[in-house]
Amino acid sequence: MYFRQADTAAEARTTSLNEELGQVEFIFSDKTGTLTQNVMVFRKCSINGHTYGDVYDEYDQKVEITEKIACVDFSFNPLCDRRFKFYDSTLLEAIKLEHHAVHEFFRLLALCHTVMPEEKSEGNLVYQAQSPDEGALVTAARNFGFVFKARTPESITLCEMGRAVTYKLLAILDFNNVRKRMSVIVRNPEGKIRLYCKGADTIIFERLDPSTEDLMSSTSEHLNEFAGEGLRTLALAYKDLDEDFFDIWMKKLLFASTVMENRDEQLAMLYEEIEQGMKLLGATAIEDKLQEGVPETIARLNLADIKIWVLTGDKLETAMNIGYSCNMLRDDMNEVFVISGNTLLEVQQQLRSANEHILTLSRVHGEKTDRSADDSLFEETIIAEYALVINGHSLAHALEPQLEHVLLELACLCKTVICCRVTPLQKAQVVELVKRHKRAVTLAIGDGANDVSMIKTAHIGVGISGQEGMQAVLSSDYSFAQFRYLQRLLLVHGRWSYFRMCNFLCYFFYKNFAFTLVHFWYGFFCGFSAQTVYDQWFITLFNIVYTSLPVLAMGLFDQDVDDQNSLRYPGLYKLGQQNLLFNKRQFFLCTLQGLGTSSLLFFIPYGAFSVMVKEDGSHFTDQQTFAVTIATSLVIVVSVQIGLDKHYWTAVNHLFIWGSLTIYFALLFAMQSDGMFGLLPGHFSFIGTARNSLSEASVWLVILLTSVVCVVPGLVVSFLRVNLFPTLTDKVRHLQQSRKKEGAYEQNLKRVRRTSSRRSAYAFSHQQGYGELITSGKNMRVGSLSSARSPVRTPHSPTWIENVFKSKNEVFCISDENPGAPESREKAETETHRLKNNSTQTQLDL
């Protein structure tokens, strides 16, 4: 689980949750940066009703963009980013022809943001952006001739087609997770005041002037086209402001920014007032590629009967597109329920309707279904596949006490659950809902600060070390660099840990019952006088020395199947979810086996000594010889038993088992020697017992008989069980032995783009924007700033300001590249069918 590109290895911050990794039933995952790379690329745009980004041949047919297609030549721009690639030359021609709408489009991208520029050398600009989306948009504007060069708290400097232009920055209307948009108000060199706004398309369209209805209709169609390729979209608009109106509004803003109570609410009302009646410029489309191996990982986890819920801040359409790309949503699903009610009553009606639809139309085993008997068993009887998609506004109502049970019942009946436009608090509430009402182990995985609450709420937290800092990683129990490593963490290491812990506990109880209950049988013959059957030193060293190392090796190294077969047959993971390897039944069987072994250990030597004689004709009448015989038989039996229970032998296992037996005999003869008795006669009373008793061949015959009789019944039961009633693990182990010479089985498939009519959408970070920080000027060098300060500034903590921009955890550097191979829906479907075929083959074998 080492990611070579980022030189990042997996890290475990706890050792107390390893076995729970093998029992996970619910995974709650973020989308951006967790399922996707969070590396944004500007692909297409719509400007004034025209789309740009596609390439057409001489027959006016759209051409698939490949490496053979020539990129647009940006050599006219000495400040361009050489890594930026765009293939539609008509957009560059429109720039050179000075189309007003096109120039305004890129001027907006160059002005409306909170990016910080850094010129490391002449012409070498590096942008530091709060989110990768902003970085991609500013870089696109830079390459098309509108270069963002510098900013101060009062101004923004651009290089427009080689000409330096400075705009006076009047106000920044910052982003938050309620507004879902940001705006800047600037004064251009001609003295005109203009507001530039960008945000989610549904938010922007609600605030447009009615005169742009036709343009809005055509732009909406283009957005649907972009959504077919899973692109993240963003709408752009502007508004010219009257000088008198702006002065009045600015005075209101100054007053609202200084009040002590309800400041945020008053500012939001003022922002809403000025962001009305805007004119639409167009829309952008950004590609956020899936991480490598995401579809295959989700396919394997689904086959392991792990339910995956995606909790994302993106729009519903974007989340659904990613769901289809990841194969979480499929066209062959029986139904995809979309919950988008605006009121509590609407949400309740939609949830109940979906629930009744499943209960009515699903093919359920049996004529009648008792829902109240066992919800988990009822969920397993649902044959049809359903998906649930719910937005954040509806989720807020669904999490109310009177509806949370209905939501949970419906979600558990669905194979896929996607919650979109959710806040960090709602993510934690969803996880807490499942923890509180379902007896299941939950795991949350995310990469950003907005995922921390979800990660801390779940039983197991996993952090992705990606582009959004280290907050999620530092709050997690386990961390790695790519989502695909989750399958190995759960299906291999988690299952092994659960398997080892269960075997460890079973063997531990068995050997201690066998050891302890011998005293119970002995009590009937010593009048329950509390006399011990063993030497006191044997009692002390039995668990510490004689049997500690073999069981430790089992808990550390044992494997029922290897890692490749653990991934090939995800159904093996279900044993942990159902807790089949250690439960009340297994504990009872361990007790029963230990009880039987203890009775055989006591009564076989007892019966043999009553009729046996020594070589000199005398009888075995001393208790010390009887104790040594039982103790030796016990150590041999438990050592042989753990050897039979092991599935994976290593040099360490051999060393610990045979070494423990060697240590036992060495200490036995040493502690019962004449020398030890001479040194401490009060502590080593079994003088010469080992030497005298183990020199008799009849004693060794009793030890051999006792060991064989104790071990053979369990060996016969295991043999009959494996051959007559084999489990899935037994079948896979048999196949593993027959496939030792087989090579790798996975194949790389070509990526195929998916077409869909679903809407994609731009997603903002859940964190508050940096507009207020920028206008304060406290993040910039003193020498580069004027003494004036923006009138909309509000007081901040200097420590917080310094930490924000100094911390690498919060700032995204555009100059960093992290290319990755995209994964397709077709690849995931092929992987799913292959895994299902392998599982079917396993069940048919033997």
UniProtKB/TrEMBL annotation:
Active-site residues, record numbering mapped to chain: 30
Bias-annotated ranges (Polar residues): 837-846
A GO BP annotation: phospholipid translocation
Ranges where the P-type ATPase C-terminal domain occurs: 473-727
Biased composition (Basic and acidic residues): 823-834
GO molecular function (one): ATP hydrolysis activity
Positions that bind ATP: 30-32, 134, 175, 198, 232, 312-314, 421, 427, 450-451
Residues at which Mg(2+) binds: 30, 32, 447, 451
Enzyme class: translocase
Pfam family, one: Cation_ATPase
Entry cofactors: Mg(2+)
UniProt keywords, alphabetically: ATP-binding, Magnesium, Membrane, Metal-binding, Nucleotide-binding, Translocase, Transmembrane, Transmembrane helix
Name of the protein in question: Phospholipid-transporting ATPase
Species of origin: Xyrichtys novacula (Pearly razorfish)
Source species taxonomy: Eukaryota, Metazoa, Chordata, Craniata, Vertebrata
